[in-house]
Specification:
This protein is α/β, with parallel strands linked by helices. The protein has a domain of about 190 residues: Alpha/Beta hydrolase fold, catalytic domain (Rossmann fold). Helix content is about 40%, strand content about 15%.
Length: about 270
């Protein structure tokens, strides 16, 4: 479902973001190879209760790349987001992150207070480093989007083609529109932030740096074919009060597969759910 609220796009400190809605601030962080558009299916539901800040992470979407030669780790992304939040005047926002954005949200909570954390399919919850299966899957998807855009365009016209392209990321890629597939493929293939972030996280895992007292929800799609349960669900570093949720009939990108359910999970964590 497409959003039906008006987005206002802005850029500050090199970080682009779109705002919508009214209420307590809610910051949305997207995954690797994506942009703030990943949140469009749930934006109208969230903006009904919150002022939503849908961020383009550095090196993705309309945002500038990270400065310097240091590795593009989730911590560095979190520091860039934290500086942007200061610029925007957001002291203690609610934060929801998907995939890499969820890992960054955890790191952000280690830097500054947050009102709540909703973590959708976060990587980094492996024992030592990224499983080879995840690394190969991401590189193949990236290569297809970058080097064969003509094939992506052709396959996106048919439901079976959309399933073939994005079967690992979505439970129901056939439900995506051809335009959405082409947009997502372009973001994955052309985003300059992909390879630096991918390389920086290959040998890392999430390690808690401070106690998080805010409400935390961890949610994985039941049909997540990228972060497999036995490889990527080691939650020993998460707060003990973390609420665990399984999203039925949803893949690694649940915002498109189950927008109503994802919105309910986020709003239940922020306390805005009826």
């Amino acid at each position: 479902m497409r959003h039906n609220v008006e987005l206002a796009g802005r850029t500050r400190r090199g970080v682009a973001f779109a705002t919508a809605g009214d209420g307590p601030p809610l910051v949305l962080l997207h995954g690797l190879g994506s942009a703030h558009s990943a949140w469009l299916p749930v934006l109208d539901r969230l903006a009904a209760s919150h002022t939503v800040y849908a961020v383009d992470l550095p090196g993705f979407g309309a945002s500038e790349r990270l400065d310097g030669s240091a590795a593009a780790t989730p911590r560095r992304f979190a520091e860039a987001v934290s500086a942007a939040l200061d610029e925007w005047g957001l002291d203690t926002p609610h934060v929801a992150g998907h995939s890499l954005g969820a890992w960054i949200a955890l790191e952000l909570a280690g830097i500054r207070p947050v009102a709540s954390l909703t973590l959708l399919a976060p990587p980094g919850l492996w024992r030592k480093h990224q499983p080879l299966y995840c690394a190969v899957s991401l590189r193949l998807t990236r290569a297809a989007c970058r080097y064969t855009p003509w094939l992506v365009t052709s396959l996106s016209r048919w439901a079976v083609g959309r399933r073939l392209l994005f079967w690992q990321l979505f439970a129901h890629p056939e439900r995506l529109s051809p335009a959405d597939v082409r947009r997502d493929a372009a973001l994955m293939g052309r985003g300059p932030g992909f390879l630096p972030a991918f390389r920086a996280t290959r040998r890392l895992r999430y390690t808690a740096s401070r106690e998080v007292l805010a409400p935390v929800t961890l949610a994985f799609g039941a049909c997540d074919r990228l972060l497999l349960p036995r490889q990527s669900r080691h939650t020993d570093q998460l707060p003990r009060h973390t609420r665990h949720v399984v999203l039925p009939d949803s893949g690694h990108v649940p915002m498109s597969d189950a927008p109503e359910l994802v919105a309910q999970v986020v709003l239940a964590t922020t306390g805005a759910a009826a």
